[in-house]
Amino acid sequence: MWIADNWKDYELIDSSDGEKLERWGQIFLRRPDPLAIWADKTASSKVWGNVHATYHRSKSGGGSWDYSKKMPQRWDISYRNLTFNLKPMGFKHTGLFPEQAVNWDWFSELIKKRGSAVSVLNLFAYTGGATCAAAAAGADVVHVDASKGMVSWAKENIISSHLEDKKVRFMVDDVVKFVQREERRGNFYDGIIMDPPSYGRGPSGEVWKIEEELFPLIEQCVKILAKKPLFFLINSYTTGLSATVLYNVLSKCVKNRFGGMVSADEIGLPMSSNSLALPCGISGRWQAE
């Protein structure tokens, strides 16, 4: 497992009985996590009860936040030299996936070592955690997401991270159509990042199902990789996919054409109250030798 263990502003304190207890800066949250199937909380009930807000799932779908303490509507946390704006969202999220920091560190090091201009395409880019990390490492980034609200949030994170002077282009667009247009325009990228949802819709109602669409999208993305690309990263939270699936896809699509190395594994967060780690999805990585 690749573990994101360099956080200072974020802490996964404990997880148990389908929940996790987290510290986001000075804000403590209690949220559902279906992978925390074990019982017996390590942290005391007093610690678990001393939170600012708890997210409760609804039997009819979705859920809502229950606020126990006064807390700001929005607040910031930092990772290394990056700063992210957070807020409680309707479906238990805060606008940031802290486990992804382990991938930010990986590709940031590759970008810095390249020693020349690096162009990065970030697909399904959400609120721009990876966009900020790549820009801070020195890359020119194109950020693509179908949600106008998420793209606006990503722009705010760029400003909060003091990266306004970096070359970042934001696009509200359907990912598949954007990649196809980039091929026709003759635009190429040294690195590609993607974090596809299990299911989703584009800005014009386009339907996305990861099991059907992922492999064709990666094949399409390979066509817009530079002659000597640097890296390719796929993240997935889809329980039906495994690390081996991502390994195989990257091997067939990217390694067979460019050589290099492929690896895939779970990503996770360490718990500060014990020696365990909480799995938080899977990642597949390709990098040039």
Can you characterise this structure?
This protein is α/β, with parallel strands linked by helices. It has two domains: 7-86, Sandwich (Immunoglobulin-like); 98-287, Rossmann fold. The chain contains seven helices and 17 strands. The strands form four sheets. An eight-stranded mixed sheet has the order 1-16-17-15-12-9-10-11. The chain has a five-stranded mixed sheet with strand order 2-3-4-5-6, with no helix packed on it. A two-stranded antiparallel ribbon has the order 7-8. Helix 2 runs parallel beside helix 3 (129-136). The model has no long low-confidence stretch (mean pLDDT 94).
Mean pLDDT: 94
Q: Helix segment count?
A: 7
- The name CATH uses for the topology of the largest domain is Rossmann fold
Tell me roughly what share of residues is in helical segments.
Answer: 25-40%
Helix vs. strand class = alpha/beta
Relevant CATH superfamily of the largest domain: Vaccinia Virus protein VP39
Q: Topology, pairings included?
A:
Elements: E1 2-3, E2 10-16, E3 19-24, E4 27-32, H1 45-49, E5 53-57, E6 63-67, E7 75-79, E8 82-86, H2 101-114, E9 119-123, H3 129-136, E10 140-145, H4 148-160, E11 168-172, H5 175-185, E12 191-194, E13 199-201, E14 207-209, H6 210-222, E15 231-236, H7 243-258, E16 261-270, E17 277-287
Parallel strand pairs: 1-16, 4-5, 9-10, 9-12, 10-11, 12-15
Antiparallel strand pairs: 2-3, 3-4, 5-6, 7-8, 13-14, 15-17, 16-17
Helix pairs in contact: 2-3, 6-7
